[in-house]
Amino acid sequence: MDTIFQVLKMLGCLGMFLYGMSLMSGGLQKLAGDSMRSFLASMTSNRFKCVLTGIVVTALVQSSTATTLMLVSFVNAGLMALTNAIGVIMGANIGTTVTAWLFALSFDGSFSLGAIAIPLMFFAFILLSIKGQKKRNLGEFVMGFALLFLGLSTLKDTAYPILSSPTVHGFLAPLTNWGFGSILLFMVIGAAMTLMLQSSAATMSLTMLLVSAGVIPFTMAAAMVLGENIGTTITSNIAASVGNVSAKRTARAHMLFNVFGVIWVLCLFKPFLSLIGVIVEGFGFPNPVTTSFGENTSALVASLPYCVATLHTLFNVINTLILIWFIPLIEKTVTWMVPAPKGDEEEVFRLKYISAGPLAAAELSLNEANQELIHFGEICYRDFEYIRAAINETDPDKFEKINEKLVKYEQITDRIEYEISTYLNEVSKGELSESSADRIKIMYKMIGEMESLGDSGDAIGRLLQRKFNHGKMFDEEMFAKINHLADLVDVAYKVMLENLRNPDLKDISQAVEAERDINTCRNDLREEHIANLETDQYQYTTGVYYIDLVSELEKIGDFIINISEAKMGMILKSDQ
Question: In whole angstroms, how far apart are CA 367 and each of 107, 276, 413?
């Protein structure tokens, strides 16, 4: 019974550790979401800056997985080239080694991170109690930091008695005597643990526990570290499996980097471990490679976590120094591994940026949603081209084919509105800053207006269909005036798309002027229509179709100006 309690206690400590890491990472991303986005987007002018960016960001968020998911977001949203993302991935693998060194310090009895966790929790509680979103985000980060190391400290104290038991030794000892087969087995164990825990940091801490408790030799701990580097890539590849081409290529690049590193280390396993031994000896620690398993002196036990951290760091640094020169080749390789889809016209109507679902960091998911709004606007403009073709078509058979396009686009806009709104609904379930929550509300309004643009195309198609069914035709003067109004709507559309693509939109005077021109033209045509009916310029029924078409085109202008105004409001919310 006591053993079961100890195991449950150890699992609870592990849960505290994982929750603390999640809380800390989420708090930091909310605290510095926009700044982090700007930092990642700007610090990528060359491959060395990309690596440095990856190191800094990952050291801050304490999670290479979180950094990788950010990169998927940026590549999907077109904010970062795949080449730059590969460089940041390399830096992220180095940055995650900072966590290993913090763990090694915690294992050292001379410095207890667990001891400072309780005061930090009190400080975090004060911050969480103060009004202000930024202070609460900071409090969340500090609380996560405290829980992370409190969980690690209690995990160490709880796990040592369990791991030191004869039962555990008797189970694992035979598994370490199979030579190279044992190395491969412990690699698989490391990868599987990382996949199950969704955290290479957690697996790293357990590896340090196992080796410092004398349960496994340093050689097997090294194999587990290699497995952890494979396991951490599985998560991103699973997440990208339902994503678009960019998401899949970014995940494959992460996988290639780590798989290549594991392969060359396995080929040079003994020389590599010997190098680790020489390095740690240079710092005054016992050599874990030349010391026989079982000779766990106090000095060796104290040094083993540092040895694991050294191995983890050296693995990623050497791997980066080798592969940084081959980033273009890696890009070509992942492009070959994940070719662009060879679809027909239907492919352009699918979501391009958010098909993988919301990212772990809700704040960063808004980048993809914003790009999807631009894509949605482009689809609506393509629909308008078919509207103009339908208006000017006089052949009923040819009109039928164009009208089918209008019906199809109405269905497409309905589907895209539903998918984006579903995505935003999932994003809003995450923890967001106030400005990002306001941005989501504005995005809902924008996709609603765009869906209305699709409805207008369908409405115009039905109106023109009734006109054909009743055998009515517009004369040349009617066509000229309607096309003039359509030209003004076309101008408004182009201004709207330009505004959607502008990340620093400060002025929508062009959009306002385009809307004013449409309204003026509509008013003039209405007055002319009334005068023409009084003088019998055309039949009443034909005039009804004519003025209804004018009204539908003017409605399109209303939806267009609403989108530009909403985009302006979203920029203002982001700047607050």
Answer: 40, 42, 20
Which region, left, alpha or beta, applies to residue 472 given φ > 0 means left and ψ of -120 to 50 means alpha?
Answer: beta
Write the pLDDT tens digit of every residue in 517-557. 999 998 988 888 888 777 777 778 888 888 888 899 999 99
Task: At 376, list the tokens.
Answer: 């949605």
Fold observed for domain 358-575: Methane Monooxygenase Hydroxylase; Chain G, domain 1 (1.20.58)
Pure H helices in 241-350: 245-267, 269-282, 298-323, 327-337
pLDDT tens for each residue of 88-105: 888 888 888 887 787 777
End-to-end, the C-alpha distance of the chain in Å comes to: 56
Contact between 30 and 16 under an 8 Å Cβ cutoff? The reply is no
- The rounded distance, in Å, linking the Cα atoms of 254 and 176 is 30
Domain boundaries defined on the chain: 2-337, 358-575
DSSP 180-221: HHHHHHHHHHHHHHHHHHT-HHHHHHHHHHHHHTTSS-HHHH
Q: Which two structure tokens, joined as six digits, stand for 567?
A: 């985009």
Question: Sign of torsion, CA 243 248 254 258?
Answer: positive
Helix axes 434-469, 396-428, angle to 10 degrees: 160
- Residue 424 contacts residue 450 (beta carbons within 8 Å): no
Question: What are the pLDDT digits (tens) for 324-353?
Answer: 888 889 888 988 888 876 543 443 445 666
pLDDT tens, position by position, 546-571: 888 889 999 999 999 999 888 888 77
Model pLDDT, residue 470: 83
Token pair listed for 255? 């996988």
Token readout for 8 is 């449950």
Exposure letters 129-156 (e unless 16+ CB within 10 A, then b): eeeeeeebbbbbbbbbbbbbbbbbbbbb
Which amino acid, one-letter code, is at 37? R
pLDDT > 90 in the chain, percent: 9
Contact at 8 Å (CB) between 227 and 189? yes
Answer yes or no: are the C-beta atoms of 44 and 89 closer than 8 Å: no
User: pLDDT band at residue 487, thresholds of 50, 70 and 90?
Assistant: very high
Identify the sign of the CA torsion 298, 302, 303, 304. Answer: positive
At 501 the pLDDT is 86
- The whole-chain average pLDDT of the chain stands at 78
Amino acid 71 reads: L
Cα(85)–Cα(47) distance, integer angstroms: 9
C-alpha 514/C-alpha 563 separation (Å) is: 13
The mean-pLDDT minimum among 41-45, 72-76, 118-122 falls in 41-45
